Amino acid sequence: MKFKLNKKIWIGIICVLFVAICLCISGYLYRTSRSVALNKSRLYPYFDKMEMDTSIEKKNNPESCYQTVNGKIYLIQRGNLYKASIGDDRMYKVLSNVRSFFVTDAFIFYCTEVKELGNSLHCCDLDGNNDEILYKNVDACTMLDENTLLLSGHIEEWTLGKYDLKNNQFMEIDVNGSVAPKKTCFYDNIAIYADTYDISTVDVESGNVEEVWSLYDDYEALAEVTCLYVYDSKIYYGINALRKKVSSMTGLWRMDLDGKNQEQLTKKKVDEICFVDGEYVIFQEME
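Now predict its structure.
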């Protein structure tokens, strides 16, 4: 005696299989649309040299283009934040319009860069879900301790502040001097800022500002600071000459935190810098 399935049951089975196949295809297409090949990253040649956790360095350089945490790499590419597993062949888009970011074991704290809306401080899960705006007009953020963020941004004027994560409260740090930064780094108890022509430090506790480096008056408007990074108690900064008269200044420079021992490392224009395995990596064009 042959067992025959009812025609309606056959139709039902076919429908279920069709839906399942469609879901699989749509899921694959969705993941593919939000991912790019890992070898498309400008940092790809350096992946095998990266440390497993760069959180300490990232705390100092919130605008650095990458961070590795718990076997994952988070990196900014053309304003988008991507995540990839070490050893994987694809990186997946997590966020858009990211200016700076810091990743913990549970959250991503990041600052947006949207010209029409202004920059804002956000917090979200590691996959980009449950996004929440914590504070507006923030350009850069880093972890001061497990419950406190250190912030740099523009409200009515440039502001340095702390954000209490437990109580969701912002506290401004009084700054005793004039600073209008375009780039921001942090090191121990100081904030390091670069505007177009100057580099200054601000004591986070006292708010005292000290100018540690400046283009000579004759060079002002003839050259500009292009990037800023702090590593191993040294400040690294790029200079781009805007006139042939000062072309010798173009390149990557290094100095002590107090501005002493200035040294030119390269004579190539550099728009961005990061460190991998103790060696600096420079990018000549922002992507």
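The chain is about 10% helix and 45% strand.
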